[in-house]
Amino acid sequence: MNTVPSQHARVLSGMRPTGRLHLGHYHGVLKNWVELQHEYDCYFFVADWHALTTHYDDPSIIQESVWDMVIDWLAAGVNHGEAKLFIQSMVPEHAELHLLLSMITPLGWLERVPSYKDQQEKLKERDLATYGFLGYPLLQAADILIYKAGMVPVGEDQVAHVELTREVARRFNHIYGREPGFEQAAEQAVKKMGKKNAKLFNRYRKAYQEQGDQEALEAARALLEGQQNIGVADRERLFGYLEGGGRLILAEPQPLLTHASKMPGLDGQKMSKSYGNTIALRDEPEVIENALRTMPTDTSRVRRNDPGDPKKCPVWQFHLVYSDDSTKEWVQEGCRSAGIGCVECKQPVINAVLQELKPIQERAREFEEQPELVRSIIAEGCEEARDQAQETMEEVRQAMGLIYR
Ligand code: TRP
Ligand code: SF4
Do 41 and 183 contact (CB within 8 A), yes or no? Predict the structure, then answer.
């Protein structure tokens, strides 16, 4: 597996600007990001170009949605001090890498991505027979590869895109990592590690290449990672040399599967804007309370003393997310025996949702009142991301013979 281990600790993920976020986003994605940011070097970005691949005829929604979404991220606890937050189109290098990768990407790879046909069928009202839409998974590949991210938190539906990214990286390294004089350059680089380490490295390499010894491979990688006096290019050469290929310029990422959110919508289906069953993070408490109070319950509970079955009730789904064991027992018992009423049953859920959202809404208000602060957080994130992206592009241009100095 061709990964550049030193970049393993980097996480990248993007979200399309779809406007204000709801509890489904919070439980499905944002809570996960908040955890990851403490552990890894995280890059989170607003995928505005991705939104254009499907909403090219309606760009005004995108602009507005971008800032609303960023405010919701910050309100949910995604922290610009820990993670880099930026907007895709403000790092135009993504587009350059997308273009260059398009040169080597077989059409069939894109046509075979499941989301291509699925989305065309699903979004029938839109004309998605465009070049941009076909290429969108490759744009995603560029998003990931430009930061040499090792891990990409995505949902099930996006795993195929990460797989495509891996294939494109492999193909790129295969074609452009084979610089003339590669072997000699690699041997020179080995020497730079010093006699002892060089000997060790060569022994591991032999054990891996001749006997497929995985432990030796791991040990050699660890050894390379610990080297202080070799530069980026040499490191890439050595990672490739170790495995018997060319330079590994682009790193193959792994998907970090975020288990599908268990967050139900107000009607018991998955919470989603297209079903109109959401609770937005910034909905007014009264609106939330009212929405929960009026949400449907098990239809067999027509009168107060008709017993019900929590399994047939969307409110129970909320208890599964929010309630402790004793409350859940109280619901099970009370529902089946008609000992409690539905209004009563909903109250702990209402309390829990409002309590969860209170600090989020307070933070959101602070950011709403300071649009310049939000702008500057993004400007700073863009700058940091861009430095990284430019570094990768230098290497990519060099590998492809596009440096004219
Ligand atoms: N395609 C993703 C989506 O629709 C968003 C996205 C764009 C993304 N680029 C990415 C996710 C890179 C992870 C990594 O949800
Ligand atoms: Fe649903 Fe609770 Fe009413 Fe039972 S008592 S039907 S679980 S709301």
Answer: no
* Structural domains of the chain ordered from first start: 6-177+371-399 (3.40.50.620), 182-242 (no CATH), 282-368 (1.10.240.10)
Residue with tokens 């000699």: 184
Compute the distance from residue 50 Cα to the ligand 1 centre, in Å: 8
Q: pLDDT tens for residues 339-389?
A: 999 999 999 999 999 999 999 999 999 999 999 999 999 999 999 999 999
CA dist 382 and 61 (Å) reads 21
pTM, to two decimals: 0.88
What angle do helix axes 59-76 and 371-399 make, rounded to 10 degrees? 100
Closest residue by Cα to atom 14, ligand 1, is: 13
Distance CA 343, CA 45 (A): 41
Q: Say if ligand 1 is within 6 A of residue 14 CB.
A: yes
φ, ψ of residue 372 to 5 degrees: the values are -70, -35
